[in-house]
Write a structure and sequence with these properties.
The protein is α+β, with helices and mostly antiparallel strands and about 270 residues long. Helices cover about 35% and strands about 25% of the residues.
Length: about 270
Amino acid sequence: MTDDVAHATYWLIQYSPDPFRHEPRNIGVFLHDGRSARCMMLGEKKGGFDPRYFCHAFSIDEETGWTYREWNHWFRTLAGNSRVDIDSVCEELDRLRVRGDRFSVTEPSMVEMTSNMVRNFILERLFRENVVVPRLPELSPIKRSFDEVMQVSELMYLPTFHRDVEVELGSGDSAAFVRFDAVLEEPKPLGIKVIQFQRVRENTLVSQINDALYSFETSRSLGFLAPERCIVLHDQPPAARARHLDRLAGHARLLPLWENQTPRELYRIALRQ
């Protein structure tokens, strides 16, 4: 007895670094099997979504990763809506294709699927065949610790979480720019700075601290952050450098990266109304 053969429709999700040169590269797959849809994009892995793969593939600063995160959310939302109105989803993808934006899709193609095939298997196969996944460079110990805290705390999975963000505060001649290692927009803005005490020169450490103080003070004075929404994550300071914690203590909540309760405490602070 042979399995019934049906066809699923798929689109390759693409990104064009330079729309004028029209040299798009595949970054994902959107699959529709006639009943529902699912998509898979660069950076998706078990337990979360990491836009650094996209940033590394196109040599883009990680602060731009929030744009890619928003597009990932857009495609996922569209896939979820396919159960309600399949035709509208197809029309939406077609509009995106003819618009010619940096993020786009190819014309639809067909793939055979038998009745015993799992949709996820087909999606993963199409992704492997069409998308090149770059290898990320090795992270420094403090960045690895920061990533672990963001993952365990589950902040990185929230839709309004952004990494490596430059925020413009005010307008016109009074505008100020501050940078954070991470920002959570809701329920109330939360700004996170990471301070590295180990394996850095003294002048580098002082520069990190001065930048953090400026960012927090400016954000508070211009109404972006409340005092209790200013967070410093840090590695363990050598005894000779512990005095620098005193400078930060009056301006931000200090959370040690190495302590087990830090992810839980960070989550509690972040979601406090």
